[in-house]
Write a structure and sequence with these properties.
By secondary structure, the chain is α/β, with parallel strands linked by helices. The protein has 13 helices and 21 strands. The strands form 6 sheets. A 6-stranded parallel beta sheet has the order 2-1-3-4-5-6, sandwiched between helices. It has a 5-stranded mixed barrel with strand order 17-18-19-21-20. The protein has a 3-stranded parallel beta sheet with strand order 7-10-13. The structure holds 5'-deoxyadenosine and iron/sulfur cluster.
């Protein structure tokens, strides 16, 4: 629902989202929280009464982008005669709240990731020019409780937040400081949200958490009320009518317990795709990163998951040029990549973040060496991704149709392995799972021919 706000919804809302899927989810919830106040999404910040910039602090570049965006918004705000309200949400807000207001005085409101349910109250305060402009208290439970339990779906695939925060304290990472301690949501609330989405045609849910497999949420009283693991949660959600596909992201090797691995074998709705970041293949670097596992421990987890679900696609995150990383350490990462064989992976140059232990370590690696290593790693990962995609040619894959393609008559969707799939077909297929025979593959997508429609929609 975008455009200009109609007469009933008096105020335009524009949300710019940076960073991870958790931020994408939070932005959707910010929209939900503001809807009862008459805010409706508009297509461009110029048309908005309220602009929310939902920020990411993970690497220096991400943070710098926020400040340059705020500079542009300041000029728009001036052009609007000061009518526009600018709110900064997310992890930069949490980490640099005071500094943000100092560096960019055009900012009206600053709210951390645990505070956006307080946005209506903050807007009211700001309009009366009373009270604090800054809300960065940690209260995840309060946030989970305060959110509307049902929400408007936006297509056949949706995120559902089940866990937030991180206690792992990897030495390079700001998340434990910006998102706070690990907290799980109650199963009852997750079920309510999932049912509400399913009743609106959602077929695929992605369970979200910074450490999603550390989930241990209280089960419904009728089920005994004990804490459930992510595996138990996935099995439970797979029984909700309409929910045909379940994914989860992002997970940590240390929390990959036996039951979750077993769920990959016994729960058909759990999609054969596992994003399990490893960061490095060198035990020395993994130790210095405080990851709490070795490269062989990671290899063993992947082997066990593949045993119960042989076709599972594996994804990961890597950091090159962590302080002290030698050529031999980097080669160990390359070897791990060769051993595992990834369907897709995200790789980054180490970025020193103020306040994290790694920032104080010796042996920072030069930009030139980081560049060289990143290029080598990405070339290998691209090759694996291309090979993985090409291995689907000739197969018939169930594809969740998510919208119209670029060309007329074309639709697109996603495979069980999270690949984008393009094929010719009628618009009426939108939101359904159809079988598509894969005839072509490239680095980023597959092309196919509609093979079978499961529901009566043609
Ligand atoms: N520098 C580079 N990459 C980082 N990540 C997290 N912190 C940093 C950092 N300081 C990467 C990790 C993580 C992903 C979300 O971002 O690979 O898994
Ligand atoms: Fe950051 Fe490590 Fe926590 Fe992931 S597990 S959010 S990388 S501290």
């Amino acid at each position: 629902m975008t455009g200009t706000p109609d007469e009933k919804s008096l105020k335009g809302l524009f949300i710019r989202t940076y960073g991870c899927q958790m931020n994408v989810y939070d932005s959707e919830r910010i929209r939900d929280v503001l809807r009862p106040l008459g805010y409706a999404p508009v297509d461009a910040p110029e048309a908005a009464d309220l602009v929310v910039v939902n920020t990411c602090h993970i690497r220096e570049k991400a943070t710098e982008k926020v400040y340059s965006e705020l500079g542009q918004l300041k000029r728009m705000k001036e052009a609007s005669g000061g009518r526009m309200t600018i709110a900064v949400a997310g992890c930069v807000a949490q980490a640099e709240g005071e500094e943000l207001i100092r560096r960019q005085p055009a900012v009206d409101l600053v709210l951390g990731p645990q505070a956006y349910h307080k946005l209506p109250e903050m807007i009211a305060r700001a309009s009366r020019a009373i009270g604090d402009r800054l809300e960065t208290e940690f209260d995840t439970i309060e946030k989970f409780d305060a959110l509307p339990k049902t929400r408007e779906a936006d297509g056949p695939a949706a995120f559902v937040s089940v866990q937030e925060g991180c206690d792992k304290f990897c030495t390079f990472c700001v998340v434990p400081y910006t998102r706070g301690a690990e907290i799980s949501r109650r199963v009852d609330d997750i079920v309510l949200e999932t049912r509400s989405l399913a009743s609106q045609g959602v077929r695929e849910i992605t369970l979200l958490g910074q450490n999603v497999n550390a989930f241990h949420g209280p089960a419904p009283a009728i089920e005994g009320g004990d804490d459930w693991t992510l595996g138990q949660l996935c099995r439970h959600l797979s029984r909700i009518g309409g929910i045909e596909r379940i994914r989860y992201t992002t997970s940590h090797p240390r929390d990959m317990d036996d039951d979750l691995i077993a769920a990959h074998g016994d729960t058909p709705a759990l999609m054969p795709f596992l994003h399990l970041p490893v960061q490095s293949g060198s035990d020395r670097i993994l130790k210095s990163m405080n990851r709490g596992h070795t490269a062989d421990h990671y290899r063993d987890i992947i082997a066990r998951v593949r045993k119960v679900r042989p076709d599972i696609a594996i994804a990961s995150d890597f950091i090159v040029g962590f302080p002290g990383e030698s050529d031999a350490d980097f080669e160990a990462t390359m070897q791990l990549v060769r051993d595992i064989g990834y369907a897709i992976a995200y790789s980054f140059k180490y970025s020193s973040r103020p306040g994290t232990p790694a920032a104080e370590m010796h042996g920072h690696v030069s930009e030139a060496v980081k560049d060289e290593r990143l290029q080598a790693l990405q070339a290998l990962l691209r090759q694996q991704q291309t090979e993985f995609n090409a291995s689907q040619i000739g197969k018939s894959l169930p594809v969740l149709v998510t919208g119209k393609g670029r060309n007329p008559g074309q639709m697109h969707g996603r495979s069980p392995y999270l690949q984008a799939v393009h094929f010719e077909g009628p618009e009426s297929l939108n939101g359904q799972i159809v079988d598509v025979k894969i005839v072509g593959a490239s680095l980023n997508s597959l092309t196919g021919e509609l093979a079978r429609v499961r529901e009566a929609a043609l």
